[in-house]
Write a structure and sequence with these properties.
With 81 residues, this protein is mainly β. It has a domain of 56 residues. The protein contains one helix and four strands; from the N terminus they run H-E-E-E-E. A two-stranded antiparallel ribbon has the order 1-2. It is extended, with a radius of gyration of 16 Å. The mean pLDDT is 85.
């Protein structure tokens, strides 16, 4: 692995479609595309896509989080192996 590699370690999802935690779950492994606001349908993340991840936890007294992490998916580097 190298810096920037995408690594899928799993998600914590619920049992209903509105609680799924990953694109592969939301698209049912690519067989059910999701519609973007632009009208485009997608099943997987593609080269050139930007991904933003935000996370936090809160109760009535506090909210903690790690801010926003944003990255753009680049094409794989072709190897001469």
């Amino acid at each position: 692995m190298q810096t920037g590699d995408i690594f899928a370690s799993g998600t914590i999802s619920g049992s209903s479609k509105n609680s799924y935690g990953s694109l592969v779950e939301l698209t049912w492994a690519g067989s059910e595309p999701i519609k973007l606001p632009s009208g485009e349908e997608r099943t997987f993340i593609c080269d050139g896509d930007s991904v933003a991840i935000n996370g936090w936890c809160q109760n009535n007294d506090y909210r903690i989080g790690f801010g926003s992490v944003v990255a753009t998916i680049l094409p794989a580097i072709k190897s001469n192996l």
